[in-house]
Amino acid sequence: MTDDSSNRVQVLDHGYVGLIDSMGDDLAIVNGARQSFNERSTEMDERNAGLINFLMREKHTSPFEQVQAQFEVQLPIFVAREWMRHRTQSFNEMSGRYTQLPRLFYVPGRDQIREQKGKPGAYYYERMEDTPRAEIHRIRIKNTCIHAFEEYENMLRDGVAKEVARLVLPVNTYTKFVVSANLLNWMRFLSLRNHEHAQYEIRVYAEAIESMLMQLAPVAMEAFVEYGRLR
Amino acid sequence: MTDDSSNRVQVLDHGYVGLIDSMGDDLAIVNGARQSFNERSTEMDERNAGLINFLMREKHTSPFEQVQAQFEVQLPIFVAREWMRHRTQSFNEMSGRYTQLPRLFYVPGRDQIREQKGKPGAYYYERMEDTPRAEIHRIRIKNTCIHAFEEYENMLRDGVAKEVARLVLPVNTYTKFVVSANLLNWMRFLSLRNHEHAQYEIRVYAEAIESMLMQLAPVAMEAFVEYGRLR
Amino acid sequence: MTDDSSNRVQVLDHGYVGLIDSMGDDLAIVNGARQSFNERSTEMDERNAGLINFLMREKHTSPFEQVQAQFEVQLPIFVAREWMRHRTQSFNEMSGRYTQLPRLFYVPGRDQIREQKGKPGAYYYERMEDTPRAEIHRIRIKNTCIHAFEEYENMLRDGVAKEVARLVLPVNTYTKFVVSANLLNWMRFLSLRNHEHAQYEIRVYAEAIESMLMQLAPVAMEAFVEYGRLR
Amino acid sequence: MTDDSSNRVQVLDHGYVGLIDSMGDDLAIVNGARQSFNERSTEMDERNAGLINFLMREKHTSPFEQVQAQFEVQLPIFVAREWMRHRTQSFNEMSGRYTQLPRLFYVPGRDQIREQKGKPGAYYYERMEDTPRAEIHRIRIKNTCIHAFEEYENMLRDGVAKEVARLVLPVNTYTKFVVSANLLNWMRFLSLRNHEHAQYEIRVYAEAIESMLMQLAPVAMEAFVEYGRLR
């Protein structure tokens, strides 16, 4: 499978997820599992679909490691910070030491100026009902970031090193990385990040990843959803 | 070994590294290695020191995994971002979703307003010689961050959720984490981060970690330095 | 915590599990978790026990990585093979390349000459009811192993390298390793290995590990059992 | 890339290594690295080859994780034991609990009945010069294994569970697994296993893997060899 710009899903105001490459599919999972019995299948059929469902239900997870998927992702730094807690993924990220960061930052839509409700351990979030107030905060976020980027660019113009000038940039600045992981690890990622407790801004990325994996290994991904994900 | 505030080293303007706990020392490495020969030592002596030197010289690294060290670290977010690329460490970090971040951010000292020299693949950094200009940039960094924190606090006061309001905070905001790793992994961390190519701001943290590990497992750490680190 | 021969539990006919060292306890888990809120506790109390139960119930597993435990284990090779599938553990094992393996192998007790029942995906095992037949198989296992060891020793006497002579040794030969892992990983190990689907011979080792961890971090381990383990 | 029996290399008397699938090649490494500079290449050229050489020389290893290769391997258990110490690989192995193991075991060629020379830390191995004596040991190995398999099969015939009967099988019995890892990890594997200190029997497998990776990512693999491997 090769790079194809049609494989790209837009996320948030300036972000995206694109599938770059992959290795294996449902059949690779089947053949990982059949290895235990010294067998091998050459095509997916009902019996093999049944095997995948059995594996997921019984949490025999190792065969799901035999599928690999690689994405390119553009995302705000604070989202990247949560994402990179997943330690069995392989990352190559754009570096603010070596590249001037483009003036690209995330401003939440009006519906995403959220208020926090509930109590510790059971927080939930609702949009700010008062639209004019929400709009004020959107503009505030935008202006604060424009100001930070202006100061960043002023420092660069005066010869300050990129690695120092970037200190003032906000955590909603967009960064970009290539990320590769096996399907089991992507499932663990989705279990935590495409979940109601995850912050909205990472959840929409996880939804994009999930829809792409659904095409790559549909039987496995449906079993994943069916059996309650990897909680 | 237990928490002791005297085990804390100040780093940068508001950061620190503190050793919280550890497991094992030079002798644990020796006994990891002696396991191959079905032997066990009860104290460090010249022969055992020689064994540790042999292990390091020949890069027989697995016995160094038998020592564990846990630190509490306060550090700017952009330093934490580099640190957390080390994927065999265990982290628990302060969360900007659940806690209001204190108005604590890193302002480089006058000597650390740096200019970038050299070319791709061989950059180096020098302090800005023109002191008044450097001072202007210091103040610029400080003021930009104060402004961002003011807007953050304004949003919080008006009921915006912490997880949204934090978007405007700069990447030099201080965060804090507990981190635990085995000695081999700490050595890999030091090989990359206490190195002339590392950014100054993470290098000073790596130096603090190195000095503390030097006390914990002196024979192993001296061998690590002696044999050119793990490059 | 230091080595103490009283910390050793006998397993199977010639095996054992001994706790060598550890780092942290229930309080370290609490303080890993409290880090999110920029807080720290100095002693376990009801509120902290409640926090650990909450973490386990909600599968917020990362704070459990802040506890480490190191064991010395003597076990048959076929058990070690299953054990070492757990890839976040640190191992140092006795080597048959460098050490002559002592004539030590596992012979199942009469109750452990088992027959397999059920069907693929749902096997179970029952002891062979016919005691004299079971006894014949016990003796058969014993004699086959004695013969293999005799041939091994014959080859060694004639100058064959240890790494070649060992080829004939059976997979029930005892080996020995030091193993270190964090508590979350031990819980994952126990979820799979102290489980009715695990082979009896690894399950008894997992039970020994579980009883020792129960002393090290009782609140966490009880929560682990209470909330259905990490399945 | 898909399974192709011509991709199979014979190793030892009954073993083999076959490339099953892969993801990425030299260009994927280049694009992992160029991500730092927010650039992307569409074909390999001299400049990109130069970049790969630079990455390897300076040990900037993370882009090499963007290539994945999956193999099927048939190998003696004692070789599998060393192989599976590599903890970032994904394995699915034939199970002696669920499958009757075929009567397939490794008998060293006459040149591989080795004697051990040298001293601890610097062993080396030479073939036993006395050919008739070497031949005696070959036959001894063969007969001991045939005897063990006969007893294994006797127990199976009498209804003993496979997981119990297998106890008597020697560590040179052939097993089989599917294994998947990224290129950086394969390089670490080769650095240790295609090395003069490695046991002959794993070294020949490592040579087979190396020759296949040489075809998959030739520029990276030549740089790996050129710059002294990952020691």
Short description:
Chain A is α+β, with helices and mostly antiparallel strands. Chain A is 42% helix and 20% strand.
Give the mean pLDDT of chain A. 94
The portion of residues forming beta strands of chain A comes to 15-25%
Q: Regarding quaternary structure, how should these chains be classified? A: homotetramer
From the alpha-carbon coordinates, what is the Rg of chain A to the nearest angstrom? 21 Å
Helix segment tally of chain A = 8
As for the number of domains of chain A, it is 2
Q: Which outline of chain A best applies?
A: globular
**Which sheet architecture does the biggest sheet of chain A show?**
5 strands, antiparallel
CATH architecture annotation name of the largest domain in chain A: 2-Layer Sandwich
Low-pLDDT runs of 5+ residues of chain A are none
Q: Largest protein interface?
A: A-B, 50 and 50 residues
- Along the chain, the helix and strand elements of chain A come as EEHHEHEEEHHEHHH
Q: What is the topology, as strand order, of the major beta sheet of chain A?
A: 1-2-3-7-4
Tell me the distance between the termini of chain A: 31 Å
Main CATH class of the largest domain in chain A: Alpha Beta
Structural class per helix/strand content of chain A? alpha+beta
CATH topology of the largest domain in chain A: Gyrase A, domain 2
**Number of beta strands of chain A:** 7
Q: How much helix, percentage-wise, in residues of chain A?
A: 40-55%
